[in-house]
Design brief:
This protein is mainly alpha-helical. It is built from 7 helices and no strands. The protein is 50% helix and 0% strand. Helix 1 packs antiparallel against helix 3, helix 4 packs across helix 5 and helix 4 crosses helix 7.
Amino acid sequence: MTIRANEPVEINIGIDKIYFIIVNARGFDAKVPPVEPDPGSNPSEDENREIIEDYPDDASAEVLRASIDQLTDEEVIDLIAITWVGRGDFDRTTFDEARELATERHKARSARYLMGMPLLGDYLDEGLSELGYSIADYRPEDD
């Protein structure tokens, strides 16, 4: 298949799903161990640290895992391939090769694999950009 430089590469996953995963992956990546395991009740004193601190009842990992697990095999394969493009392992001209390798390696633990990558959100954003898409141009319907 010939890919033109100004034409987006066809992908098998919606930008809306990738956008949701990027937003959640960036939130998940930003989590840090709590400074105080039992925070006080005055948010003005804690400077909103609880937002980025990783408490046991924080659902950010569950939301990210569920958003990946609900994808079809074809969508997960493209998500992995897009991540590899964003990481610099492949580019727009070798995207089909990335898909083939992702197909060979795709297992039921794809969410764990992807969530184990620091900067997953950034890799997806960069991968989409390389493939001719822009998250900056995407606006979810509820915005």
